[in-house]
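Re: export button greyed out
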Amino acid sequence: MPEHSFVAHRHRQGGFLEGLIADLLALLEHAHRAERLAGSPGLMQAFDPRVRLFGVLVLIGLTVQTHHLSTVLGLFTLMLAMAMLSRIPLGLLARGIWISVLFFTGLLALPALFLVPGETIARLPLLGWTLSAPGLASAAMLIARALTTSSLAALLILTTPWPHLLKALRILGMPAVAIVILGMTYRYLFLLLNSALDLFTARRSRQVGRLDADQSRRLLVAGGGVLLGKSLQLANDVYLAMLSRGYRGEHQTLDDFAMRHRDRAALLGMLVAVAIALAIRI
Amino acid sequence: MPVADFLLDRIVYRYDGISALDGISTTIARGQRVALLGANGSGKSTLLRLLDALCFADSGSIAAFGEPLTEARMQDENIAIAFRRRVGLVFQNPDVQLFNATVFDELAFGPLQLRWPREMILDRVAATLARMGIEHLKHRPPHRLSGGEKKRVALASVLILEPDVLLLDEPTASLDPQSQSRLIEDMIGWGGGAKTLVLATHDLDIVEDVADVCLVMQQGRLVAEGTPGAILGDHALLQRCGLIHAHRHRHDGNVVHLHHHLHRRGHTES
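Workaround output, generated via the alternate export path:
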């Protein structure tokens, strides 16, 4: 049975421990959901990870490069179509990306509405600030760009298993050592999350009543200490296991990616699209 | 006289001032299948790590394949690569051994370190996955594997190098009976029985199936050596070393028996 496949009790009511356990479970569930999506059949998933990475980078580049809001909106629509054909729930993008991007980019774009000079299209009551058409266009462009680029990046992550994505980054010249370190971090993050979950669940099983703030802090610090000790021991043993299989301090990676006809066709299509975009200055 | 893969002479190893191995002397012959028996903390795992040159004795000497196995010699890259190619260790905790992001990476790790060509690595990974019946796990991350699957992948990650000597630390610990049985079959079938196998265990159930020699350890000392039949038949020795226990059963009619508990070999009345 996989380490995580227990029934999640997600009730947040209760004390500190219950909240902590629910958060850890939610984190694991989120990661597993992303892995399931990346492994399910779909448009993006059908292509070689390197083609996916290249394609998303091209679309992000076009989004940043263009000065036309309509082009950005077109690219956003393309992203939506790709997400749907890749079976990525739009609700997931909305909750995970769009709300936060709209909020933070909106805050950044807000001053532009009133500070950019140009034709006045509205005036705020009481304050008397004027809303200019160029300001509105500038703010809309900023928000649309942020939404499109972050959604494209999320789409790539949700349709590509993390280890494959890391290996695909080699085409951008990312050093092997960074790929190995990130890969190991990803792998042991789950182990430590499960350890933390076991630790706090075991503590809850012996708890009577609710913990006050002081007890909660002490529990958290003690749990952190135990996990740190475990991590150090684990790191030492992992290093020995690496030595045992011939590790000599030099990192190397290998992928079994294979370019198929559809991957080559997709690459060619993207290159043509880029050439056309540059030619007509979209 | 059989060729020795390992020759241990009065090995002493201390850990944090505590003697973990105390005067171990023995020979492991080529092709021999050795079971290191002992309770928890008897020094089995430490001995395996010494045999795999992951730590080195405070005193005494080890020779591997006729050459001294020392820290200084293992600094030489050619010697280290040749040794790692010939000796493989499967750790007790598979989470320690499965440090890569996917099963494919895990199997490819050893061959990559030993500088095998890319095509050869890809072929050998595919062959090993097929041989171990774990092709379907190829792209899975280790945290998505069950305990039995992890053990099989850990074993595969070592067997891919086709070592002459396979060291196994508690290979069947915390496995369900089916996974345990499959792992034992892998061990028995490995190398057609011609390669050297050293496994540390306190699971007496598997010893007769996989070993032809038993070394019994107690508190860092080698206290007995013999065939599985002879060692498993010596209940006094096994009880003294914490490998079996005696307990009382109440049967129908209130008859109370004191049994030595030897698992599959059945109860032995004393």
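Chain B touches chain A through 43 residues (CB under 8 Å). The button fix ships in the next patch.
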